[in-house]
Every structure is written in structure tokens, then in C-alpha cells.
Amino acid sequence: MVNTGYRQSVYWGDETKYGSATAIDEDLGVVQSVSPGERNNLIKVRTLGGNRDYKSVISGKFEISGSMDWYLQGGSFLRQCVGEDSGSTADADSGPRIFLAGPGTTYLHVLGSANSPTADNYPSFTLEFTDDEGIASGSTNLKRTYRGARVNSFTISGNVDEPVSCSADWMAMNVDVSTAAASSPTEYTTDPYVFYQGGVYLTSAVINGETKQSELSNDKVALCNSFEFTINNNCEAYWYISGTTDTTQSKRGPKFIIPKGRDTELRLGLHFESKEMYQRFLGNAAATGPATNIDKFQIGVDLLRSGVVGSAVDSNDDWLRLVVASASFDDIAINGAPEDIVSNDVTVFGKNFKIYIVDDVESYQSS
Description:
By secondary structure, this protein is mainly beta. Helices cover about 5% and strands about 40% of the residues.
């Protein structure tokens, strides 16, 4: 019989060995869509002395890619998207252990490692996508388990009157198929972040996980309608003539999916407030025309469910802060039309970024 999305589920698990299936024990969030795609890359061969049809059709390299959209409830999967600075080992990530930031069970996670990882050490995950008919294994259930998956691009965005949303495009090494029932990890119980929990700041000072919002009160961008931050890891898959040399690999699937130099972009949808934003685009806050040198600044985007961002962390704190550093405006649009509020949309390029998350999760990394 036909199936509906209400009978589908998507869960994932952090891989401790790249490409090796791991326990499916993580919730993604309020999932809106999942679109996996596989390709056989058929090799079609003609021959001299034959006819106008193909002589042979042979299976080629096997490719797996996909996308998914969800509303943001927790930060665990963001480690898969941007890497981690405060992982549990220096081999897997670039920094020291995640530390207990205050009384109770509240932890600070620092994401956004710019270090160049080896092929095995950038975060990877196993993704389970199940069409579950609600009947026993061996039936018409379709359970696809994608191994060695890595995020190629990731976007987090917020708009007025909407939950904060995320989307990711990913690539995977291999897929296993069964008719087993879906896994049942513990799901998030908190509501997704929403637009009115946000705050946007622009300053020439340094913003980090310990910068209090009160210190940024004079730098708040008050008339912000939307934000959209995108990172592209520029992942590339590699195949080799030798076929498989590891039990986690298949003969036709890629042997590695490697993140390369990354690109980031932040878009802000604003209402026009003053000429300062345009002057900053020209080069500095006092510019009267296009400047030779462009001043750099930092932009912070806060999402606060409870507690105080940047203050001494306690057991009730639950927040996320995105910081785009050494930033400058790439383009700007200040438009006008009768009876419309004047818009002031900007695209920001930053040399680097960090995501700070405070929650009750001890580690985003499987032990």
C-alpha cells in the first residue's frame, strides 16, 4: 500500500570510526523533509560491428547524497556540520575537552574548527531513514542506513513568526537496506528556537562565548527581520581502482569523503534605520564614498531559551551564539517602493566563525 510521511522517521548516530555503522541514538529535531538520492552511474558501451543499441550496460561508481530540513531543538547535529573546537580528544577535533561551565549539569560547546582534518577525523555520522509500516521485520518496511555520511553544506536561518530552521546537504559512503523496525532514540522535549528569542549585534569589539549581552547593548541591530548563515565544506568524494581495502567500504562506493576549504556567508534582512550600515559597506562608519581599506567587525547572533548569554553558566542556561568574525559587507541593497517600509538587506563575508552552545548535553561526541 502507499505510505505517508507520518510513518517515516529519521534518526542518526555519531560515528567513532569513519564509515563504520554506529548506534542510532540521536534525534535530529522537528524534521520537515528528508531527500536521499542514490546514483548507479551506469557505464553504457557500444561496439564496432554491432547495431545502434548498446552492447553492454555496466554498473559504475555508486554515489549517495541527500538533503534534510528541520527546526532547531538541540545542538548535537551542528557538530557534524561545522566541526568542533572542544571535542573529547585532540585527534578527532582541534581543542581540549568540553568543560563543565558551572554548577549542575550544564556544558559549553565550542563549534567551528578551522583545522584541516585527516580523512578519518572530521565528524561523520550514520543516518537512519525508515519507512515503517508498523508491522514485523521481514515485511514491507524499508529501512535505509547510510554510513560514512558527512555534511557538505549547512544553513541556519531565522525569520519573524517562524521557528529557527536548519537545512543540510550531505554525502555518504555506503547504504545498508533492511526491513527492520525504526530505532527509537530519546527525542528532544524542548520546543524549537523561535524568532523572538534572537538578538543580532554588530561591533568592532571581540565577541565570544563569555561576552555578556549587556556589554553589546549599544551594538544591537534593532530592525532585523531575518538572518541566514551558510557554510559550505566543499566536500569531495574519492574512488580508487583498488576497490575496497576496508570492511567499512564497498567496491563501488567512495572510499573517502573529504572536507576541503570552507566558505561562509551571512545574510541579514533589515529595515533601513540610518546611513551607518551603508557607510560600513563603503568601508567604515564615517565613509563618504568607497574606501580603499574596509574596516572589519564582528557580528553575533544569539538564540536564548533560558539563562543569560555570556554570564556565568548555571544549570538553567540554554542558549546558542553564532559569531562571524573579521567580517565585512560583500553587497547591500536599500530599496524603495510606495507604501513599503524601506528594506536594507546585506550579505556579510567573514574570515572565520564560531558557534557557542550551552545545554545539558555532556558531549556531542560518542565515546
